[in-house]
Structure formats: C-alpha cells, structure tokens
Amino acid sequence: MPMSALESVADAAVRTTYTFTSESVSEGHPDKVCDYIADSILDAHLEQDPSSRVACEVLCKEDRVILAGEITSDANVDLQAVVRRAIEEIGYVDPDQPFRPDAVEILSFLSQQSPEIDQGVTAQTSLSGDQGAGDQGIMFGYATNETPELMPLPILLAHRLAAVLAAHRKARTVDWLRPDAKTQVSVVYGDNEPLQVSDVLISTQHAAGVDREAVRAFLVNTVIPEGLAGWYHDDLRILVNPTGSFVQGGPSADAGVTGRKIIVDTYGGMGRHGGGAFSGKDPSKVDRSGAYFCRYVAREVVRNGLARKAEVQVAYAIGVAQPISVKVDTFGTGDERAAAQFVRDNFDFRPRAIIERLDLLRPFYRSTTNYGHFGKPELPWEK
Questions:
Q1: Residue whose C-alpha is closest to residue 179's, from 218, 205, 202, 215
Q2: Is 88 tagged catalytic?
Q3: Domain hosting residue 332, numbered range
Q4: 132 in a domain, yes or no?
Q5: Is 130 inside any structural domain?
Q6: I need a surface site. Which of 193, 199, 267, 295 has the fewest CB within 10 A?
Q7: Is 244 exposed, middle or buried, given 0-12, 13-18 or 19+ CB atoms closer than 10 A?
Q8: pTM for this entry
C-alpha cells in the first residue's frame, strides 16, 4: 500500500530505504517507431509463412526509412505498404511534417539469412538433429511479487503513464497531443518493498502554440492520476516538459533505430539483461524467444511460492539445441535449491520446445512492441 506522505517514509528509520527509477517511451518515440515497423514486417511474413526467418533492422530519420538485415521466407510481402501502414497506425500523419506515410522514402537493404546459420537452426540439417539456437548469447527473465503482474512497480507505472497518454491522444481528449513522449517514475522502497511513488516526469510532444500550463494541467489532473491509480497521492513531485516546450519530435526531428530501448522493453533496470534486442526477430532467434521463456519460468517460480523474486538466466551456443547453462537466483527471498530443481523438472529450454510451448509462430509481435514485452496478460509468456 502507498504511504500517505514522503515524510512518513523518512520517519521509518528502521527500514533500509532507497529510490529506484524506471522510464518508458511512447509508440511515437523514434526508436519505438523503428521497433514497430520491424515487428510489422515480421508479422507480415509470419502471416503467410510461419517458418519465415526474419532479422529486420530499421532506421528512421526525417523523410527516410531504411530497412536492413536478413529475411528468408516464402511470403510475398509488400514492404512499402507495411511500412507506410505502420507509420499511420502510430499517428504520424501531420501534413506539415516530413515523417508521414505518404512522404517517406523507403530504402531496403535486405538479403537472405546466411546458409551457414540456417543449417544449424534447421532441425533437418543441424548436427544435433534438433533445431539449434539462432545465435550464441545469454538471456534473462525476472519476476517479483511486488505487483499482481509480477513486474517491478517503477517500470509498470511508467508504462501505464505512457499508455494512458497515448490513449488520450488517440481519443482526442485534447487535440494538441502528438505521438512522441517519455515517462519516468521513481519509487521509494523500504526493506525491498515499494512504499510510495516519489517523483513523476513526463515529456510529451504537443502542437505548436499550446500554452505550457495547459499541457501541465492536463497531465497533472488527468493523465498522472489515471496512470498511477492507487499509487497516486498529493505529495508527488511532478515534472512536465522540463525544457519548456516539445513541438519538434519523432523521426522528423531525431533518428530512431531498432533495439535501442531494451531496458524499457524488459524490467526498467530492475532485472538484468543479456543485451540482445527483441523487435524484428523471429522466434528462432533466442535473443527474443529465450528471454520470453526465461520470464515465463521466473513467473512460475514466483507463482508457485518458491520465492518472492526470481531471475532465470540461460546461455546458448549457435546451432546447438540444448542450452549451455541455466541458472536460477531468488535473491534470498526463497528456497533457491528447490527453485532450481523445479526449473529442471518442468521446463525445456530447447528453441523448438520454447516455440511450441509458447506458440510463437503466430503473427502477434506488433502487440509486444510498445509499453513493455512483459507484464501484459494477453501475451503467452504471461499466462
């Protein structure tokens, strides 16, 4: 439960207190625009050919969209149409901006997947006779019982604020909101449990000529109470557009690239990250499917009462089905040995087994792109 005032937190001297901060970004942030285009291209291929191998990178700047990477698929996809539709769905439709569906130039530098990678990933040609990992690497999954979603509170609230802001923009509650935005939430913890939200920062793009106080009033009186819900209180410290104005935004002003928001995509810095990005990659790439499965397993450890917090790490070698290692950490909040045995007995970390268990060959990846890949109940690794 949130406490009534920041002073009451300070009075709790017996607690070990600290403040943890996480940020989120809206779907109109330049990097997220690129992630959404990449996942739209992935979905378009999976709709026609579930065995498609896709590793699509995107760069956006002003009136140009650059596609690069490797795609091997029997699908016949109109990339130009997919990109333009994605930009329109995000909301970049202002006729006075260079980045809009009918104005962007789309350059494609896509080739097929390397046959040397393919022979290790395809079960029929791999040395093990099973589908191997699409790359070497390490992936992490994290879960905590501090929220019903089993997510850290700071990133969960930051996502909610960004999503509420986008919902009001699309509903045209006010007519001056624009797609680019960032949110940040600071939470005071005592004895490793969240006590109270202390600070909220929102920077949101808006139309020219809008009074700064009008922007602040709408965010303070509508967006923030709605986004924080029961964690809202009157003693919040709030910053809104601290540079004064935010008219120039999105790819019209700044460059965006896929994979640059990996901490936003995961746990807001609360859990570790292996380094691999998610968007634009089909599930044969364990950067994505392995991280999703580690989250699924960590959730099951917490849900089964084996720990209050859990982190799962897996490591792979390219072309090899069985992971090199799997590690479980409960941070002293449970029986780590029992948790590790539970994971060994119940979860198969081979790429093919992960894909089948989570049903990952479906074209649903656009629903993962924004407001976190974790904590949304409709996603298969959250069930």
A1: 205
A2: no
A3: 137-146+260-382
A4: no
A5: no
A6: 193
A7: exposed
A8: 0.93
